[in-house]
Design a protein that fits this description.
The protein is of the alpha+beta class. It is built from 9 helices and 12 strands. The protein is 41% helix and 24% strand. A 5-stranded antiparallel β-sheet has the order 1-2-9-4-7.
Length: 230
Amino acid sequence: MTAEPVLPYFSTLVRTPPFDLLDNDGMQQLIEGCRVLHCTRGEIVAHCHDAADFMWVVLGGEVKCSLISASGSEKIIQVAGPSALFGEEAALLGRPQLCTAQATRDSNLLLIRSTSLRAAMARSASFANAMTLRLSSSIYELIENLQICLQGTSTQRVAHYLSRLAPPSAEHFEVHLDTDKQNIAAQLNLTPETLSRVLSRFVRDGMIRPIGRRGLVLDNLSMLRSCAAG
């Protein structure tokens, strides 16, 4: 893991929600004491129970945040791609990290001090409101995912995951999966083999079509949503 200057990434950060809501002075205040880390694939970014002195912004690459049991089994809580945030809940509360964060690709991560984050929220009501909405959305999605994993069949879980990638009113939509099937399966509490079987069934039934390495055309979103609902 190597550190890099923040300035080369400044223009990226000012275009990344919710930081685009800060004025120039607020942005300068936020990045004081920040640093950018370059992590290689497979490298651990943060361990469970680490002190939460920072939150992270993914400038490029991908990081998975997981709960790991004593036996070594893994439950993925979040796969954070470009522009995603993670660790903000622990940073704002000043409590230890609950997840282990690991780079699944070579990644550039901006570390923002928890004290700087709180100061920026106190300075800008619109930024504080946007951060609150992001946290609320994350909590809602987490509970929704737990509900699907606890109560839904494998078909329902995959259909729910895919249908959420498209706008609510769409009937036909092309998507690019930001992460690999192994990580998607772990998020849905499925084996990769089960995920592959469900996807193959969806292809046979005319609901989806693969294009390229990670591309999918969702051809019949009404049917996918019906499968998700059971």
